[in-house]
Amino acid sequence: MSSGARHPLDNPALGSLTGPHAHFAEHRGRVMRYPVDVSPWLALPDEPDADDWADLAALVGPGEELGLPAFDGGIPDGWDVTFSLDGVQLVDDGLATAPEPEAVRLGPADVPEMLDLVERTRPGPFLPRTVELGTYLGIRRNGALIAMAGERLHPPGWTEISAVCTDPDFRGEGLATRLTLAVAHGIRARGETPFLHAAAGNTTAIRLYEAMGFRLRRRTRFVGARVPELLGDRQTLGVA
Question: Where is the N-acetyltransferase domain (predicted)?
Answer without folding.
Answer: 101-233
